[in-house]
Write a structure and sequence with these properties.
Blueprint (H helix, E strand, L loop, with lengths): L3 E3 L1 H5 L4 H10 L11 E6 L3 E11 L3 H5 L4 E3 L4 E5 L2 E5 L25 E6 L1 E6 L12 H10 L2 E6 L10 H14 L3 E4 L15 H4 L6 E2 L8 H14 L3 E3 L12 E2 L2 H6 L3 E2 L2 H17 L3 E3 L5 H12 L4 E5 L1 H5 L20 H13 L4 E2 L14 H4 L10 H10 L6 H16 L8 E11 L18 E11 L2 E5 L3
Parallel strand pairs: 8-9, 9-10, 11-12, 12-15, 13-14, 15-16, 16-17
Antiparallel strand pairs: 1-2, 2-3, 3-5, 3-6, 4-5, 6-7, 7-18, 18-19, 19-20
Length: 483
């Protein structure tokens, strides 16, 4: 099958999905695609493959791209390609892939449907619970759930037992990953010993085997400890991923300190408990030059602080989760599936987060997939464990609420879920990692269909568009819908 190069002008005349993608590539000088050059290819008439050039972190380029990558001294970045493909209303059987890739090797397209093949999504904030809490989730069940949601790479948080605060304590997690992972898993190392916040972990020994350092589930309360951690991480060329929470401002709260809490007699968590530590950690990042990533932001104040920090040139990125973009305290019920940390905030906070997604302040969407047992989530808002599952609903929720409503383009959603996480965390992308979705399919969320051991989702019963039909990694299907 022959490939023909085509210009951006010719391609833009074709319209459709790629009419939405094209503006993203043509915005020169805007992070994460700076002064990008693109090569466009078409295969026959309506079978189109898009190969935009993306930038990746310099310190991970050697092992990710090898000699095939090119280096720009001015930008300090490497370049590689990512693939997106669309096929419209035609029947394909035993499709022959393009000569330079295996992107479509396992896809069969059914007459009357429109499937889109994306790069495999990447989630930098997932709790896989193993070792230590396998009754909640395992490496196997969690990564199967990831594949069901279109993810081919996830980063596993370190609130485990043992906490991966040394090479010895990381070893059981690495062993389970090698044995059972259905998708690529990149573990975090903890910032402090036991995630207790009073002494640094063995960051030197952990650095070769972890994607970044985090004490997720706990804010590092001591500014001195966080300063030392950032100085060490900067020397190791590693990211600090901060769970920002000031314990002295929690006051035993478990939902947002807002109208619902006051009306129903619940103890509230103030917004300041989050943004005050965001403010501190940005200042420490600016002081040390450490790459800072702020986890699961939920407040308008955090969004503003990060926006201003970026304008000053601070090396900071952040994530938010689908539930903070779709829900707020007005959606609460007296049910444990609405208890997560940080909590669902006010409508004004949710609108500020959406604005941050639109203007680029928020770099990526991460699920904070946090499964628990049915018993742990059965005790209402006041007594249930913090955390909800999200891997199997993330794309459909965001596509329905943000793309179909015109808030962002589909290309921007792919950037948030597949491109930016890899750029920031130096996570490799391979052409044989992809996921296929039927975007025309609408259905209600039914947690009984989840592959995760966790079933607690605030989206239960909500109707979303977008059904994952296949996810492939390493040249083989790791999830395939049975029809």
């Amino acid at each position: 099958m022959m490939l023909m190069q085509m210009s951006k002008t010719d391609f833009s005349r074709r319209g459709g999905f790629f009419g939405a993608v094209l503006p993203l590539i043509s915005k020169k000088g805007q992070n994460p695609i700076d002064n990008a050059e693109s090569i466009w290819y078409t295969v026959l008439s309506d079978k189109t493959i898009f190969k935009p050039v993306r930038r990746y972190r310099q310190d991970h380029a050697a092992q990710t791209f090898g000699s095939g990558a090119s280096f720009s001294p001015r930008r300090g970045v490497f370049w590689c390609t990512m693939d997106i493909a669309i096929f419209r209303h035609e029947k394909y059987s035993d499709f022959t892939p393009a000569p330079d890739g295996e992107l479509l090797k396992f896809i069969r397209f059914i007459d009357g449907h429109e499937y889109i093949v994306f790069p495999g999504f990447c989630d930098v904030h997932v709790h896989l619970r193993e070792p230590g809490f396998s009754y909640k989730e395992t490496i196997k069940s969690g990564t199967l759930a990831a594949a069901h949601g279109g993810f081919t790479a996830v980063c596993a948080m370190p609130n485990l037992s043992p906490v991966p605060d040394s090479a010895e304590n990381l070893a059981p997690e690495l062993s389970a990953i090698r044995r059972d992972a259905a998708v690529s898993v990149y573990p975090y190392g903890s910032i402090t010993v036991g995630e207790r916040g009073d002494a640094l972990s063995d960051m030197d020994a952990l650095a070769p085997d972890v994607v970044a350092f985090s004490d997720d589930g706990h804010g590092v309360q001591s500014g001195e400890i966080m300063l030392a951690a950032m100085e060490k991480a900067a020397g190791l060329h590693k990211i600090i991923a901060a769970h920002c929470e000031v314990n002295s401002l929690l006051h035993g709260g478990y939902i947002h300190d807002g109208e619902y809490a006051r009306a129903h007699g619940h103890r509230g968590i103030s917004s300041e408990s989050e943004w005050r530590e965001v403010e501190r950690d940005i200042a420490l990042s600016e002081r040390t030059g450490c790459a800072l990533h702020i986890c699961h932001i939920s407040t308008k104040e955090s969004t503003s602080l990060i926006r201003e920090a970026k304008r000053r040139g601070v090396d900071v990125t952040c994530e938010t989760a689908p539930h903070y973009l779709l829900l707020d305290e007005g959606d609460l019920f007296e049910d444990g599936r609405f208890r997560m940390n940080p909590p669902l905030r006010s409508r004004e906070d949710r609108e500020a987060l959406i604005a941050g997604v639109v203007d680029g302040t928020i770099d990526m969407i991460a699920t904070d997939h946090a499964p628990h047992s049915a018993d742990e989530k059965s005790r209402g808002l006041s007594g249930s464990a913090f955390g909800v599952v999200g891997l199997e609903t993330s794309f459909a929720a965001c596509y329905t609420a943000l793309v179909k409503t015109g808030v962002i383009t589909l290309a921007r959603l792919v950037e948030l879920m597949a491109v930016s996480p890899r750029i920031r965390f130096g996570i490799p992308y391979c052409p044989d990692e992809y996921t296929a979705f039927d975007l025309s399919d609408e259905r209600a969320v039914d947690e009984r269909e989840f592959l995760s051991l966790g079933r607690s989702t605030p989206f239960s019963g909500r109707r979303f568009f977008g059904r994952c039909v296949l996810t492939a990694r390493g040249g083989r299907a790791v999830y395939k819908e049975i029809t």
